[in-house]
Design brief:
The chain is an alpha/beta fold. It has 20 helices and 13 strands. It has 4 domains: 139 residues, 3-Layer(aba) Sandwich (Rossmann fold), CATH 3.40.50.620; 155 residues, 3-Layer(aba) Sandwich (Rossmann fold); 57 residues, Glutamate-tRNA synthetase, class I, anticodon-binding domain 1 (Helicase, Ruva Protein, domain 3), CATH 1.10.8.70; 102 residues, Orthogonal Bundle (Arc Repressor Mutant, subunit A), CATH 1.10.10. The protein is 46% helix and 11% strand. The structure holds one RNA strand.
Length: 500
RNA sequence: GGCGCAUUCGUCUAGCGGCCUAGGACACUGCCCUCUCAAGGCAGAGACCACCGGUUCGAAUCCGGUAUGCGCUACCA
């Protein structure tokens, strides 16, 4: 394998960037990096009815965000490389030319069957419990006869003759796989009646033209690989190596789908998953290092990646595990990096009205040490700290009274704590973080002299001041909030409790 | 229906004939820490290695069969 490695990811812009495509792209990139090869992005948009530019833009943006932008081929800004074009919609002449080559070799024939004919044939075979398969009835039409029919204006698809025999796939993941070409469904349409090419044909032409050495793709293509091999042979070009990756599965172990799982990459991004976590997680879905290391950067993954450790069985997408990894990566980011990641979430929360105003960088920086260990997702930061950006709180009356307390005790405690807080808390201070907070000392003393558990006192204050039962550390939160709002919230809470 | 692939704790996986009375991680349970929630630490529970045969002194690991699951089977990609 001393030859130059060239691999590719060939997304089809028929939907938003799919998490499964992301993983295939990642494996290709990892393999290329590991072997000093080239990683190519090609857009497979021959299905004009289902492809569109918005999806293509989404896919390219997603790849770029993940750090999986192309070395060669299609990137958001255009194309790079001299073996293009890299968009199938721009390669029509090439497909036509190659089809003509095959035609000249006598390896194809025009097929005049209409979709209706084929449908009827398929149904008949199904009813007879026979595997669906094209009968090849147009194969026997003489060249003169078909030329005459075409001249008469009849349209025809172009079929590639499937050579009888057993096709051997030497798969890098699965080993030797043999498939009888008889099971391929008969002669293959490579050009529609309107002259546009079909996937199995374009993929082979492109892989050949672009000098792809390793085809690394999902297992769902394994059964179709013999068609590709036959086409490569017909073109007289060397075969690439194949490596079929296990499928990513829904929890019910079917192929991961939009219906049953969240598959759009943008949705994960919007929730606040880090690229580091997504890449780490995806790499470990169907591949392992062979060691017990699990939290790995893309650089570490690149160093270790190999096809030998690729799993053969499908892997269920375990979102809980992704969230754990996300937490791991959030904790590994330094303050500056975390600020950059967090900022857009505060901005969009302000824009959509979730928060009354956006947070300043200084505010986010002050918050980071308080929330870093508490957010599984970047978006969790906003909900965890929303009280800091609100002028009034919507208290939950039931939550205001600690479990072991009654309303009277709560009122008494809030009243007793108020002057201490008014004295100790300034107007929007920095958190004291690990230092012992003098207010805490005073309030503990208050609790003790009043016969309360300090935990109950703190909980009453927490809910009064933040409106929540789960918050960042209480005293730091109060300092961030500032005296005026703390006291206002305290009074509002007391009013609510006394009214109940 | 045909063809193909797969099968180790709920999930992701380690394992490549003896180190396995099967290891790790997530999730789960308990304890510790603790102002809440987390994070972190410790401990625990959880897999007759799908099943049945065979090879071997010895099998999760090799071979055969069965079962189950999944994938493919388009003038979709």
């Amino acid at each position: 394998m001393s030859d130059v490695v060239r691999v590719r990811i060939a997304p089809s812009p028929t939907g938003p960037f799919h998490i499964g495509t992301a993983r295939t792209a990642l494996f290709n990139l990892l393999f290329a990096r590991r072997h000093g090869g080239t990683y190519i992005v090609r857009v497979e948009d021959t299905d004009t009815a289902r492809s569109n530019k918005e999806f293509e833009a989404d896919i390219l943006a997603g790849l770029a965000w993940l750090g999986l932008g192309a070395d060669e081929g299609v990137v958001a800004e255009g194309e790079r490389g001299d073996r293009g074009p890299y968009r199938q919609s721009e390669r029509s002449e090439r497909y036509t030319a190659v089809a003509n080559e095959l035609r000249a070799k006598g390896l194809t024939y025009p097929c005049f069957c209409t979709p209706g004919d084929l449908d009827a044939e398929r149904k008949a075979r199904e009813a007879a419990k026979l595997p669906p398969r094209y009968s090849g009835r147009c194969a026997a039409i003489s060249a003169d006869a078909s030329a005459a029919r075409i001249a008469a204006g009849e349209s025809a698809a172009l079929r590639f003759r499937i050579k009888p025999g057993v096709v051997v796939i030497d798969d890098l993941v699965r080993g030797r796989v043999e498939i009888d070409s008889d099971a391929l469904g008969g002669d293959l349409v490579i050009l529609r009646a309107d002259g546009t090419p079909l996937y199995h044909f374009t993929v082979v032409v492109d892989d050949a033209d672009m000098g792809i050495t390793h085809v690394i793709r999902g297992e769902d293509h394994l059964s179709n690989t013999p068609k590709h091999i036959l086409l490569f042979e017909a073109l007289g070009v060397p075969l690439p190596k194949f490596a079929h990756l296990p499928l990513i599965l829904n929890p019910d172990r079917t192929k991961m789908s939009k219906r049953k799982s969240q598959t759009a990459l943008v949705d994960y991004r919007a929730e606040g998953f880090l690229v580091e976590a997504l890449v780490n997680f995806l790499a470990l879905l169907g591949w392992s290092t062979g060691s017990e290391d699990e939290v790995l950067s893309i650089d570490e993954l690149q160093e270790r990646f190999n096809l030998e450790h690729v799993q053969k069985a499908g892997a269920v997408f375990d979102r809980t595990r992704l969230e754990w990894l996300n937490g791991q990566w959030i904790r590994r980011l330094n303050n500056e990096e975390l600020l950059v990641r967090l900022r857009p979430f505060y901005e969009s929360a302000a824009a959509d009205g979730t928060l009354q105003r956006a947070a300043t960088d200084a505010e986010i920086v002050a918050l980071i040490p308080l929330i870093r260990d508490r957010i599984p997702l970047l978006s969790s930061a906003v909900t965890l700290t929303d009280f800091l950006f609100a002028t009034a709180l919507e208290h939950d009356r039931a939550a205001l009274v600690p479990k072991r307390w009654d309303a009277a005790t709560t009122l008494q405690a809030l009243a007793a704590a108020r002057p201490l807080i008014a004295e100790a808390v300034g107007e929007g201070e920095q958190p004291l973080l690990d230092a012992e907070d003098p207010l805490e000392v005073q309030l503990r003393a208050l609790a003790e002299s009043s016969g309360w558990k300090s935990g109950d006192l703190f909980m009453a204050l927490r809910v009064a001041v933040t409106g929540r039962t789960a918050t960042p550390p209480l005293f730091d939160s109060m300092r961030l909030l500032g005296r005026t709002r703390v006291l206002a919230h305290l009074d509002a809470a007391a009013a609510l409790v006394s009214g109940s």
